[in-house]
Amino acid sequence: MSGKYATETILANAEGIARAAQVLREGGLVAVPTETVYGLAARADSDEAVARIYEAKGRPSFNPLIVHVRDGAQAREYADLTPGAGIIADHYWPAPLTLVVPRKPDAKLAAAVTAGLDTIALRSPNHPVMQALLAECDFPLAAPSANRSGFVSPTSAAHVAATLDGRIELILDDGRPCVEGLESTILAIRADGRWEELRPGPVDLDRLHRTYRNSALPIGEGRGGIEAPGQLASHYAPGKPMRLNISSGEVAPDDFVIGFGAIAGDCTLSERGDLNEAAARLYACLHEAAHSEKTRIAVAPVPEEGIGIAINDRLRRAATPPD
Length: 323
Fold this sequence. Notes:
The chain is an alpha/beta fold. The chain contains nine helices and 14 strands. A hairpin with a 5-residue loop joins strand 9 and strand 10.
């Protein structure tokens, strides 16, 4: 224990999920595995519980939270889903896809969840532990990534404990790393039906748009400002200077090298150049680099295609110094 609470890590079995649900009912904080990264869950209908998320993470109050729900039916309790958003919620969820949609004015949610916006970010996670926990609760769960704000996102229970030990009550340990390894794709569906990608992630929105709208995804300009998590210029930071797209000849002695494909490293995203494997291993490599004795980080080029777009988005934000 290194803080106010005696944080306990327990197995994410039926007993552990039941205990987590009780902690949440009482306003506590629980780190929960999802298919993307571990989330820091609190009941989204409690001002006090949601305030504790911001406190534990050191999260800026203007950065809204994602609200996790069981399905489209529960989502409709808090949001006005356009026909297009309703189709995605009913037929594509659960998935690593967050929908930003108009918030119902009478939604029974903590005010800080939406950070004063008239939209709400909703997701139904595709992970048996989080779905089982949602089934145990008669309230939705606000759940940003389970790490100190601005630092590397957690894909294991050990990553969570490294920054939140003593700040939360409970960590549900799934016993294995998160499968996707990157935070959810965030899609805003506007009242007029337009789609705008607010954060790239595991879901290919162009393919999704072709499936449901029979056309390519138009490029949206966005509203500007922070409308969803993961939009800060500096984020996912390992706490050391980072250089991206380095060649093997550019490596210095004090560089911790994150390799990819033919470029080997101290830690390798994927020796065979597999982008899905690279996405799953990205944060584990950044955690290893952060704890290395080497003072800088150098990252091999990753193709800007498919899930590589999301990988490079996270790397650029991790390499951007904070203001």
